[in-house]
Amino acid sequence: MPAKTQRPKPAKTKKTPACPECGSSSVIPVAHGIPTLALKKSIDAGKVILSNREEWEGMTEWYCKSCGCDWSGRLRRFKKAGSVNATR
Question: What's the rounded mean pLDDT across residues 59-71?
Answer without folding.
Answer: 87
